[in-house]
Backbone:
């Protein structure tokens, strides 16, 4: 890498379809399909047919390797085939989210300190947390215990966000200590 490139992690070439979603004026999402051309520890570069405004929030899903996440557009410049767009990962995580499609059991303390058990669905994982869909909201900063059926991970964490979705409540859980729990049988 040249001396003018401020990044501190190496770019890895990628050649894969990527789907991008960003909020539109009607409160929905605008979907764009492009190609992911490289990734680094802190972001990805994609080529899309139309420009995307710098500092836009964007969600992405790369087909291969299967990764998804969100971030902020850092640059958009003309490139062969359209526009090269650099996306900085939203929480600067060192690992990308990987899709998961598995049941999960959660235990959260209620107002009396008794653990309430709730069933949900795990939609993605990273080295620092998981996202689950549950039927009822869970308070941000709550402590939770969880057990994902497949991949077999379990442990404790803290709720980072809770957002209403069409299928329930999307809840982000950050692993305690920031480390992915190990499965005792794995």
Residues:
């Amino acid at each position: 890498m040249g001396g003018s490139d401020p990044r501190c992690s190496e770019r890895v070439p990628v050649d894969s379809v990527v789907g991008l979603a960003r909020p539109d004026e009607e409160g929905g999402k605008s979907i764009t399909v492009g190609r992911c051309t490289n990734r680094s520890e802190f972001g990805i570069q994609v080529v899309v047919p139309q420009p995307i405004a710098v500092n836009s929030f964007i969600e992405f899903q790369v087909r291969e390797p299967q990764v998804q996440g969100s971030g902020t557009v850092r640059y958009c410049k003309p490139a062969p085939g359209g526009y090269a767009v650099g996306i900085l990962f939203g929480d600067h995580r060192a690992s990308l989210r990987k899709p998961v499609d598995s049941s999960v059991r959660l235990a959260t303390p209620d107002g009396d300190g008794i653990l309430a058990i709730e069933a949900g669905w795990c939609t993605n994982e990273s080295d620092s947390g998981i996202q689950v869909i549950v039927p009822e909201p869970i308070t941000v900063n709550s402590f939770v215990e969880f057990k994902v059926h497949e991949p077999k991970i379990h442990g404790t964490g803290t709720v980072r966000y809770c957002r209403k979705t069409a299928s329930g409540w999307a809840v982000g859980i950050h692993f305690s200590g920031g480390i992915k729990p190990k499965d005792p049988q794995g």
About this structure: The longest strand covers residues 67-79. Residues 6 and 42 are 12 Å apart (CA to CA). Confidence is low (pLDDT under 50) at residues 1-6. The two ends are 39 Å apart (CA to CA).
